[in-house]
Amino acid sequence: QVQLQESGPGLVKPSDTLSLSCVVSGYFISSSNWWGWIRQPPGKGLEWIGYIDYRGNIHYNQSLKSRLTMSIDTSRNQLSLRLSSVTAMDTAVYFCARMLRFGSFDYWGPGRLVSVSS
Amino acid sequence: DIQMTQSPSSLSASVGDRVTITCQASQDIDKYLNWYQQKPGKAPKLLIYGASNLERGVPSRFSGSGSGTNFVFTISGLQPEDFATYYCQHYDNLPPGFTFGPGTKVDFK
Fold first, then answer.
1. Which whole-number Å values give the CA distances from A54 to A49, A70, B31, in the listed order?
2. CA R_g for chain B
3. Which residues, 6+ apart, have CB-to-CB distance to B25 below 8 Å?
4. What does the buried/exposed string (b/e) look like for A47-71 if buried means 16 or more CB atoms within 10 Å of the residue's CB?
5. Whole-angstrom distance, CA of residue A89 vs CA of residue A91
6. pLDDT < 50: residue spans in chain B
7. Which of A46, A51, A59 sits opposite B44 (nearest CB)?
8. pLDDT at A82 over 90
9. In terms of CA atoms, which chain A residue is nearest residue B58?
């Protein structure tokens, strides 16, 4: 059973850096898959952040690219996300997910709510 | 960039109803279109991938069709657990990225 679990601070101050991890269990992250980050502001729709493969190839959402860093650690079977210079607009539930056929996301973490506030 | 429009934005239905949601792409996306169900406080759940393929474990009352620019998602016989928000999602590799539709909220009539 593939499981993903996001973790990280739930409250970040404006202008600081948001850091999240996503641990994958039941599946080797080094298998040939892409892994994605998606976020959802409270009461709003879904926005993709970026996706990364086990070799570290990365594609970022252009609107976030200048502030984003994603990485993958195959030894720990986990993904990481860092978003710098955050504002209240970055308040959202952040999800990690496994990408599969036709660019679909078949397994998701439960999500981590990150609030940006002083 | 490809734009995805989804309609309706919300609908009210009763148990047993047939529900149809449409998703339209601003240009040809072949069959790179997926459908998700999301309940409050939960992660989205993949229902349909590649426009018409039912994800394993998903009840057969859910179906999808279409290709190119016009896609349809259908629930044949709405069940109480189906009241949720539904999203279409497109993947493109040129340039690489995803686009989610704005969502359709299905609530109880």
1. 17, 12, 26
2. 13
3. B2, B3, B4, B33, B68, B69, B70, B71, B90
4. bbbbbbbeeeebbbbeebeebbebe
5. 5
6. none
7. A46
8. yes
9. A106
Cβ–Cβ gap B102/A45 under 8 Å? yes
Task: In whole angstroms, give the CA distance from residue A24 to residue A4.
Answer: 5
Q: For position B11, what pLDDT does the model report?
A: 97
Rounded to whole angstroms, what are the CA distances from A59 to A53, B29, B42, B96, B107? Answer: 9, 19, 25, 7, 36
- Distance of alpha carbon A49 from alpha carbon A94, whole angstroms: 9
- The answer for residues whose C-beta is within 8 angstroms of residue A70's C-beta and 6 or more apart is A37, A49, A50, A52, A58, A60, A79, A80, A81, A82
- List b or e across B9-31, with b for residues whose CB sees 16 or more CB atoms inside 10 angstroms: eebebeeebebebbbbbeeebeb
| Both tokens assigned to B60 | 């057969």
Query: How far is the C-alpha of B46 from the C-alpha of B23, rounded, in Å?
Result: 16
Could you read off the pLDDT of A4-26 as tens digits, one per residue? Answer: 999 999 999 999 999 999 999 99
Comparing CB atoms, the residue among B42, B53, B91 nearest residue A103 is B91
3-state helix, strand, coil in chain B (%, to 5): 5, 55, 40
Query: Tokens 């729709």, residue?
Result: A45
The answer to whether the Cβ–Cβ distance between A104 and B49 falls below 8 Å is: yes
